[in-house]
Amino acid sequence: MTERSSSPAARTVLQQCLQARLQVKPADEHSEAQFVQIDRGMVIYICFFKGATDEILPKMVSSLLNLRLCESDSGRMVSVVELPGSVLLVPQATLGGKNKGRAMQYHNNISKEDGLRLYHAFVSLCEKEVTAASAEVTVKHGTYGNRQVLKLDTNGPYTHLMEF
Amino acid sequence: MTERSSSPAARTVLQQCLQARLQVKPADEHSEAQFVQIDRGMVIYICFFKGATDEILPKMVSSLLNLRLCESDSGRMVSVVELPGSVLLVPQATLGGKNKGRAMQYHNNISKEDGLRLYHAFVSLCEKEVTAASAEVTVKHGTYGNRQVLKLDTNGPYTHLMEF
Questions:
Q1: B5 contact A CB<8A
Q2: How far apart are CA A94 and CA A104, in angstroms?
Q3: How much is the pTM?
Q4: B27 touches chain A (CB under 8 A)
Q5: Residue A123 carries which DSSP code?
Q6: CB atoms near residue A115 (< 10 Å)
Q7: pLDDT tens digits, one per residue of A34-64
Q8: I need a labelling partner for B83 at 20 to 30 A (CA). Which of A5, A34, B99, B108 fits?
């Protein structure tokens, strides 16, 4: 077993889906709730820790989009870009939690301002890399800071953890 | 930031749900697919690593069931037992994956036989602890080794990682 010598700058959880729907704007007195939706593809939950910088983003995006995590119709493992599938990015600060007794604490999470900036840069980079790689793949994303009201339908979520 | 001095024996990912449905037996020529379902509560995805033993289970189960991860109707954070909610246990060996380049490898995962034994002991312990704590909470679980065909509906998955 390998030892981890330092804490990660970002934590992601990846789940495969047949369809995923995420609220991007809650209902208010003037309008109904708004949602984004993808069909077959991958949901990426993401959380940044204190100390994370823009420098980690290119490697992170390239790695996440090119990992062979998706099962093609012929049973071969391919990347979400190769599938081709869609990508749903879900900001998920809770992933940075650490328990102290029965309570969860989020002391290592990045500040809200820096997190928002990195999240937007991460989304842009994903969109750019995907557009360059395949016209058939789309990227959708949740609203940073919102409650991530999510509905997920899978043929096996095939959940993975990737830290950077 | 804290350093991790050793690899974990078990990795879990926790998601809150309004409803979750999991296939426990795929369809075959003789019968339709079978599913288990919970309403409001928590989904626990679980993976054991090489070296995991029964010794970690009591602390693990107690910790997972008593963490204050669930939002009560009054907005207070309570445990799934206190909610009271239901629990869906999903064996998820993919959580043990580590990438080598673009491919995922699972070299640190426990053997299938030991994993099956620990998973069954984990399920039993969860059922026992839940029964002792609340008559209103039920535990459902997936079939070890199966494809975990899952459908999830959330009011925010509030995803957490817990390692033991």
A1: yes
A2: 9
A3: 0.95
A4: no
A5: H
A6: 22
A7: 999 999 999 999 999 999 999 999 999 999 9
A8: A34
